[in-house]
Amino acid sequence: GTGPGASSYLDSSSSSALYLTGVNTQCASALKNLQLQFVFSRGVLATTVESGIAVRDADGDLVDGSFGVSGKVVTFTPAAACPSPYEDEFCFDETANYTIELLPGVLRSTTGTSLSCTTSYPCAFSFTTGVSVDVADPLVSMDAPDDGESLYAGAIELLQAMTSDDSGVSVVDFYVIDDDEAVYSSGTAFSNAGALLGGGEPNAFFTDTLEEWDTAGYLTNESYDVWARGLDCAGNSDTAAHVSVVLRAASCNNDVRDTDLGETGVDCGGPSSGAYYCGACEGDACSVVADCAS
Length: 294
Fold this sequence. Notes:
Elements: E1 20-23, E2 36-40, H1 49-52, E3 53-57, E4 65-70, E5 73-78, E6 97-102, E7 124-128, E8 139-144, E9 150-152, E10 156-157, E11 160-164, E12 169-176, E13 184-187, E14 203-206, E15 213-214, E16 222-232, E17 237-239, E18 243-248
Parallel strand pairs: 9-18
Antiparallel strand pairs: 1-2, 2-5, 3-6, 4-5, 6-7, 8-11, 10-15, 11-14, 12-13, 12-16, 16-17, 16-18
C-alpha cells in the first residue's frame, strides 16, 4: 500500500537491485519536526537524490529542505524553523498533509542500478504531521556481540543494538573500525517490534541474516571495535559505547586440532602473533582478552 501505515518492509534479498526497504512516515502523526529517513537496499548515489525524491505539500509544491546521504540511508530535513521556543529545530507545518514520490528513472545506486518500484516495494507515500516537537536524544547500547567475544573469519556475524526513545528510534547504523560508512543500516522492519516503538519502550534492532557483518577479508587474530548509532524520528541521535571483538581464523571454530596451523589443542593455541592463533587453551596463561579462546 501507499498509505502512512505501510512504511517498512522485510526482505532478505542479497541481489544488486535498488529498492526502498522503509521510510519512517509512521513517525509523522506525533511530530512536526519529523526528519524523513529512507532506508534502501543498496548504497544510494548522492547526486541523484535531490532530483529523485520529491516531498510535496497538499498544494503539490515541493517542500524546501535538505537531503543527507550516508550509504543506504537518505534523510530529508525541512528548512523551516519550528515555532518558539524551538527555533533551533526544523519543522513541517503541523497537522498538514504531505506526499513522497521516488522517481525510478532518476534515483540510482552507487553502482548505477536504477530504483525499482513494485507493489511490495512502492515508491509513493503520504503522511500527516502531528503537533509535538521532539528534542530528546534516544538511548542506544550494543546487545551483540559481547565485549571481548571471539568471532570467526568468513562467517556472517549478528550485530544487534538495544534502543529506547520517547518518539521511537527509526534507524540504527552499525559500524566496524570507523564511522566512514555503516556496515549495515536497519530500519524498523529489522527490529524486535517490527515497527516504531515509542514511550521509552525498549526495541532491539538487528542486521539482516544474509547481510550481517560479513567478516570475509578482515585480518584474523586482530581486535575490532563494533558500535551502533541510532536516530529517532526527529533525527536526534545516540551512539552506543564501542565493544571490542577478536576475529579468529575459521579454523579456530571447526572442532578439529589443526596441528599444521600450530594449534596445540582443539580450536585453541598456536603462535600468539600468527594469523591462525585461536587463543589460549584451557589452563594456559591468558593475560588479555585477545589471548583468550572463547
